[in-house]
Amino acid sequence: MPKVVDPRIRRRELAEAVWRVVRRDGLEHASVRNVAREAGLSMGSLRHYFASQSELMTFALRMVIDGIEQRVAALPSDGDPRQRAARVLAELLPLDDQRRAENEVWLAFTARAMTDPELRALRDEGYDMLRAGCRGLVAGLIGPGRDPEREAARLHALLDGLAVHAAMRPDVDTPDALRAVVADHLAELRAARTTDAPTPP
Amino acid sequence: MPKVVDPRIRRRELAEAVWRVVRRDGLEHASVRNVAREAGLSMGSLRHYFASQSELMTFALRMVIDGIEQRVAALPSDGDPRQRAARVLAELLPLDDQRRAENEVWLAFTARAMTDPELRALRDEGYDMLRAGCRGLVAGLIGPGRDPEREAARLHALLDGLAVHAAMRPDVDTPDALRAVVADHLAELRAARTTDAPTPP
DNA sequence: TCAAATGTAGCACGACTGTGCTATAAAAGG
DNA sequence: CCTTTTATAGCACAGTCGTGCTACATTTGA
User: Fold this and answer.
1) Are A105 and A22 in contact (CB under 8 A)?
2) What is the pLDDT of residue B63?
3) CA–CA distance from B142 to each of A194, B76, B103, B139, B149 (Å)?
4) What is the distance in angstroms measured between the alpha-carbon CA of A98 and the sugar C1' of D26?
5) pTM of structure
6) Scanning every residue of chain B, which has its alpha carbon at the shortest distance from the alpha carbon of A82?
């Protein structure tokens, strides 16, 4: 007795089942069987929506990227670059459960993308998006004497590092700690580049 | 016709076979069979050195941690904290093949540690080690008005973020780019904390 | 009303996995 | 020289895996 459900909703439900399995048991346990069971469907039914496992996985990762992109795009585009930067960065950090979930799933797939060409394309897309975003934020913020591209790379690395740490040690790298570090960094970006005194003799 | 080899060397060889399989095919393909084949041994022989797969994996990760720890410890302990910081950080970044390998293996295991308690203990050990190292470096560097713990967290996140990026995009985040970003960051740490001007009205 | 399309379920096959087990050859030690 | 230990190899079992396939119920559309 099949229910009548928009297939797009079913696909979302299945992708969310992938997320739950990945977070609870790890990506290596996200088999077709386990995901189908998690979603309360049969294997055959799952394969009606996704012709192969890699299609399912690709879609589950795609949903992470799209979700983040949409949330950032929905942010009020304030004229003040400092407020906008603060808002965008607060949106990118894993500060609540929803974003913690996305972050953990993203990390799991990022690792697998090291050896999976199909996932790698998506991972690179996310990387490029975030790097471009950092470029935009930095451009409106940096003080004199700073290299925009290097500052974008630095902010980007800081963000991804904080995300990894938040996943690894949520007890140490708490939301408040993440916010404080990012606030420090933003404040610093606005300062002029200090020319280096030579190493004291 | 068994060769006469120090069993500790065999264990190292097997761990290095794990590394190669992990880098080439991914952690999910580091099965007992594949690792044994990679090392040129039989499954039975591998299991003579490692009673279980998790013991093999644990040892392979342990070797990463110990290797990094030993290389940092072997660094000439210069009196100047700035030179020492530069040296230590250059040692921690994945700038050559050996460290690129360690870094990729570390990332793969870090991801799996999210759902594997045994690996998690090792991962946390690495995390704590690096955080403590950052604390030490920052203490000797920071300018007035800075919070040492927050700066340690920031440097730590920056390092891990750069490591992730170097693994993901070695073409973009080249060794030179990594060095430049870290140099910028170190120079900045020495500057005094700029008190924030309030957001302009 | 009846045929086509759609959603759901389940089975079967071949492949791969970790581990327990036995067999055998070489080395070590008396 | 002979026994014990060590190293290596290989097989067998039970389990999981992805996928192709069939069967059936429900909905849709003419």
Assistant:
1) yes
2) 98
3) 14, 22, 28, 6, 11
4) 36
5) 0.93
6) B199
